[in-house]
Amino acid sequence: MEYREYIHMPLTPRDMRWGLRQGAIAGIVAGIVFAAFEMIVSAAMMGAEAFFMPLRMIGAIALGAEALDPGYSLLTAGIAGLIVHMVLAIIYGVIFGEIGAALRGPVAFIGAGSIFGLVLWLINFYVIAPILFPWFLDANPLVQFIAHTFFFGAVLGYYLWKSHQRSGLEQPL
User: Fold this and answer.
1) Cα dihedral sign for 25, 40, 138, 61?
2) Which of 39, 71, 95, 160 is the most exposed place for a label (fewest CB within 10 A)?
């Protein structure tokens, strides 16, 4: 009976506060890892001049497609891309943090985080991008799958699991 109670523990206000706070931090951490992976892979696949292209593409969400033009200020596009990317990463981290408040154990956190990243990729690239941001359709789908699932989602889950352990929430009451 103890194991069953451990699995089905009700969420408390403390769990929910933890999810908000740690989800935001996890979103920042995972967002940085994701961006680094995207930028390195972009440069490796298309040359050093493409290193900042992921930030340009994200910046174009706020600035418009003209931010993709090489003549457009890299500083402006890069800062806009960084801001938009981190805001989205925090929002996604908070959403997953609230989901994570109900999870226990590394497999649950990392597995759910990976699935969460996969769902983000599917929604962002196959629902939202074709309608609002078609330049994202030029991105390599395999790279995007890997980036979202493993370099964002799994990192998000891993960070939250480690935070959950440190907080004492991982243990049954």
Assistant:
1) positive
2) 71
Residue among 103, 149, 99 nearest 124 (CA)? 149
The two structure tokens encoding residue 51: 């290193």
**Is 150 a residue whose pLDDT tops 80?**
yes
Rounded distance between C-alpha atoms, residue 152 and residue 98, angstroms: 16
Q: By the 8 A CB rule, do 93 and 24 touch?
A: yes
Q: How far apart are CA 143 and CA 33, in angstroms?
A: 14
CA atoms of 171 and 169, how far apart (whole Å): 5
Question: Does the pTM of the predicted model rise above 0.90?
Answer: no
For residue 143, CA distances in Å to 34, 53, 77, 150 come to 11, 14, 22, 10
The single-letter DSSP state of residue 137 is G
CA atoms within 13 A on the CB side of 84: 17
Token pair, residue 90, equals: 């925090």
Q: Average pLDDT, stretch 125-139?
A: 95
Q: How far apart are the first and last CA of the chain?
A: 13
140 φ, ψ (degrees, to nearest 5): -65, 120
* pLDDT higher at 169 or 155: 155
Whether residue 161 contacts residue 110, with contact meaning beta carbons closer than 8 Å, is answered with yes
Separation of alpha carbons 84 and 80, rounded Å: 6
> Can you read off the two tokens belonging to residue 139?
């991105």
